[in-house]
Amino acid sequence: MIGIFIALISGALMSIQGVFNTEVTKASSVWASASWVQFSALGTCLVVWAVKERENLLHVFQVSPKYMLLGGVIGAFITFTVIKSMESLGPAKAAMLIVISQLIVAYLIELFGIFGMEKADFSWRKVIGMGIAIAGVVLFKWE
Q1: Could you list the residue range(s) of the whole structural domain that residue 72 is in?
Q2: How many CB atoms lie within 10 A of CB 22?
Q3: CA–CA gap between residue 132 and residue 129 (Å, rounded)
Q4: What burial class does residue 20 get, using C-beta atoms within 10 Å of its C-beta: 0-12 exposed, 13-18 middle, 19+ buried?
Q5: How far apart are the C-alpha atoms of 37 and 85, rounded to whole Å?
Q6: pLDDT at position 108, please?
Q7: Which of 5, 36, 42, 85 could form a disulfide with 94, with the two C-beta atoms 3.0–4.6 Å apart?
Q8: Contact 119, 111 (CB under 8 A)
């Protein structure tokens, strides 16, 4: 149950952050805004780490395979793409397409066991669910 609550908070925060970042971009540029987001996130993470954990930060380099360290690079492009999509589509349409994309890619990662994830069996129920979500976007966008 706690996982559902945390996921709902995550989705809400992502939508709010996208709106905030889009407004910051209007006062600067997309890469300046994305830089601020990443810099302020780093500061926040370091403060929370210093208060809560204080374990060796360099332990992150023990991960294998090393390409798993690219999460921050991906995060920079996530910030960029969220800003640009919200700027051109508006928060609701952009968020729906982002969530659908997340569902599809996450399911493919599970289905094929990509990035070391455990393979999941194919499920028509999940495919139909994604189809319904896509139909919902079409219906939402329909004017």
Answers
A1: 2-141
A2: 21
A3: 5
A4: middle
A5: 16
A6: 95
A7: 85
A8: yes
pLDDT in tens, 56-107: 989 999 999 999 999 999 999 999 999 999 999 999 888 888 988 998 999 9
Q: How far is CA 97 from CA 27, 29, 89, 101, 116, in A?
A: 26, 23, 10, 6, 26
Q: Which two tokens stand for residue 11?
A: 């989705």
Nearest to 25, CA basis, from 87, 91, 88, 92: 87
Longest dimension (CA), the chain: 54
User: Domain total for the chain?
Assistant: 1
- Residue 97: name the closest of 126, 128, 138 by CA: 138
Question: Rounded to an integer, what distance in angstroms lies between the CA atom of residue 78 and that of residue 16?
Answer: 14
Q: Tokens at residue 7, please?
A: 């996921």
